[in-house]
Write a structure and sequence with these properties.
TolA/TonB C-terminal domain, two-stranded antiparallel ribbon, 5-stranded mixed sheet, alpha+beta
Length: 140
């Protein structure tokens, strides 16, 4: 009976390791600089998703970033930001698909804005900013 208990304990302890083959479950972010919502994009009221392909070295540094999709006005800033990231838990050099979600929400405001940024997973970031208030206008 004692052996059966030890065998069950051993098997249960191995279960999380079987699921560990998904990169997102192992992958971590060591260095993340919060991205801005580009003023030029905010003023032009551009929002949307930017998909990037990052080549990450074994030590976690992002070496290159290719834009897969997204508005160029947003993609340039996302690409520059992703080059500053450092990942952890990479067993070897890897290519990662990373998505930046740019959203305009909330009341229109005048002047500079500090966006709300959340790292949803090691490969997904959400940047939310208020839409601009036209010069001389009043909030709706």
């Amino acid at each position: 009976m004692k052996r059966l208990g030890m065998l069950v304990l051993l098997l249960v302890s191995l279960i999380p390791l079987k699921g560990g083959e998904n990169t997102d479950t192992m992958l971590g972010v060591r260095r993340f600089i919060s991205p801005d919502y580009p003023d030029v994009a905010r003023l032009a009221q551009f929002s949307g998703d930017v998909r990037l392909l990052a080549k990450v070295s074994e030590d976690g540094r992002v070496e290159t970033v290719d834009v897969l999709s997204g508005a160029p006005i947003l993609a340039k800033y996302a690409q520059e930001n992703l080059l500053t990231w450092h990942f952890t838990n990479l067993p070897k050099e890897e290519k990662l698909d990373v998505v930046y979600h740019y959203r305009l929400r909330g009341p229109k405001i005048h002047g500079p804005v500090i966006p709300s940024v959340s790292l949803e997973s090691p490969t997904e970031v959400v940047i939310i900013s208020n839409p601009p208030l036209p010069d001389g206008g009043s909030p709706e």
